[in-house]
Amino acid sequence: MMGYKSATSVIFAGLLVAVSISSGCGKSNRVTVDKYDPATAAAKAIEAYDRNGDGKLSAEEVKSSPGLSEGSSRIDKNRDGILTSDELKTRFQALQSQSASMLLRVDVTLKRAPLAGASITFVPEPFMGDGFQSYVGTTTDAGVCDLKGEKRDTLGIPTGFYQVKIIHPGRSINEVRGVEIADDTTGNRLVIAL
User: Fold this and answer.
1) Domains of the chain listed by start with CATH number
2) For 109-128, what is each residue's pLDDT tens digit?
3) For the chain, what is the HEC assignment?
């Protein structure tokens, strides 16, 4: 007669075999998400928005990037109103230590009521790199938008900085907002109030 521990081991081994067979004999079914190098991303951000060539981003220069503008209070550690390459790099490193991507619920409201039929596009900020795609969706009657990758399906949206385009021709809405998607900012829910 087989003991309890032996029977449990046999059942566990059987489950492992079943999981291996169902997942393609060891092939990973995980969807990979794009990553960026923090030092390169910081250098690209400075290069893109530093109009006066001083090697840092003033509050006025940051306005050219909706994503950075929204996240500047988290990036500017010494609260001097200027984003340095080191501050940017530190924030990008912090993002890489968080979830690689977020399963994000997006709620869009207009005057506190759900906005149905709005076209939503999340465009990665250019400094994140060429490998990142845009994510699109349309709000439901409840104002909720499920986002899908424009080029390929992924599990969630990669952590990082995005421009959010909100268009609703019937309501004359054509806005651009910035967002930093991360565990310590949006979490799994983003509310866009118009």
Assistant:
1) 38-96 (1.10.238.10), 101-193 (2.60.40.10)
2) 999 999 999 999 999 999 99
3) CCCHHHHHHHHHHHHHHHHHHHCCCCCCCCCCCCCCCHHHHHHHHHHHHCCCCCCEECHHHHCCCHHHHHHHHHHCCCCCCCEEHHHHHHHHHHHHCCCCEECCEEEEEECCEECCCCEEEEEECHHHCCCCCCEEEECCCCCEECCEECCCCCCCEECEEEEEEEEEHHHCEEEEEEEEECCCCCCCEEEEEC
